[in-house]
Amino acid sequence: MMPPFATTSPAGRIITALAAAGLALNLAMLAALLAAHTRLNSDFMAFWSFPRFVAAHPPALIYNAAALMAFQQRLYPGFHSFYPYLYPPTLLLPLSWLKFLPFGPAELVWTLLGLAALWFGARAMFPARPWAVLAGLLASPAALICASTGETAFFTTALLLAGFACLPTRPALAGLWFGLLTLKPQLGVLLPFLLLARWEWRAILSTCITALLLNGLSCAVFPANLWAQWWHTLPAYQNSYFSAAKALNLNIIVTPAANLVVLGASEKTAWIVQVICALAMAALTAWAAWRAPYRLAVAITLIASFLAQPHAYAYDSVAVIAALALALEARPGPAALVLGVAVYLAPWLLLSPLYHWFLYAPLLAACLPVLLPLALTPRKSAISAA
């Protein structure tokens, strides 16, 4: 399948120029960050610290904020903040290798593995143009934020793309990738609705088996009561984010609830709206899975998931850029292209003095009315109806 826009078309030239400029700017920004040695604001510090903490303490203390904070501040001289462990116990398994490497080499290997995973996902989902899509993903501001902080979005986006690529023809393998996504489960919050609407029982079974095996392995390696502690501490951490809205930059959290709190809404109002959004997005995902061409249904699911899940950051939205690439295959009109460019570039605001204006949920919500008509009136050459 050829790219949705030939590079000689006006839209193709604009998209190519945008990706090239973004990639050059991202490389320049990364070089500047490395030159400035900004080590004490990298989320990778958290991932590097977690397996070291578990090796030196009873694993049950990983959810003890005071113990983990004290350890991190001893581990990183001059660091006076805190990176809580907000993840399920299973994530400690794939992080365990980090304790064997010094910080610098570990960060380098982590970044290279993330890039390799993203290439794998792009190649699976976009086999005719993987390099073009990969360049577009890496040129995005979301990718810059992910790479500069050492976050997990390259891995999670790769799992989503690999799973969606396999689902029509190899559902059991798709379930394996989706099951691994339970390491950061909120990013797959809408997957059950898509799989059920498509009656993908083999994928559902494979996902459940993979998740159960991960959970069982974590219980064999670590105390089983870690799961109860995770469920107990997670809501408290979430509420503390909203309670400290004046002290924290909540704009980097891209969910409707976080955006509403930034705008001055009460926590109760924000959570009510978040629940309503989650229900609406679940219904929309099921409808798209049943009615829309497959690749458009995937695009809708990826975008809707950021309106449904209660906790997601700007760096997680690399998956949104993949959704834009899928939407481009449907040859949207000029107005839709302008909206897509706005969604693509908006995270740059977080790196500017205008960061308070970064409210991503409304932009993502505006994408859905654009995608729905495309789903209702698919064009022959636009989307595969796998």
Notes on the structure:
The chain contains 18 helices and no strands. It has helices spanning 10-36, 44-56, 65-75, 92-95, 103-125, 130-139, 141-149, 153-166, 171-180, 191-197, 201-221, 226-243, 256-262, 267-291, 294-308, 318-328, 334-345, 360-376. It is 66% helix and 0% strand. Residues 1-8 and 379-386 have low confidence and may be disordered. It has one domain. The protein is globular, with a radius of gyration of 20 Å. It is mainly alpha-helical and 386 residues long.
Task: Kindly list the characteristics that best describe this protein.
386 residues; 18 helices; 0% strand; mainly alpha; single chain; disordered C terminus; 66% helix
* Total beta strand runs: 0
**Oligomeric grouping of the chains:** single chain
Shape: globular
Distance between the termini: 14 Å
Total individual domains: 1
Largest beta-sheet details: none
Strand content: under 5%
- Find the structural class using helix and strand composition: mainly alpha
Please count the helical segments: 18
Which regions are unreliable across 5 or more consecutive residues at pLDDT < 50? 1-8, 379-386
Order of SSEs, N→C? HHHHHHHHHHHHHHHHHH
Radius of gyration (CA) equals 20 Å
Q: Could you report the average pLDDT, rounded to the nearest whole number?
A: 87
**What share of residues is helical?**
55-70%
Give a short synopsis of this structure.
This protein is mostly helical and 386 residues long. The protein is built from 18 helices and no strands.
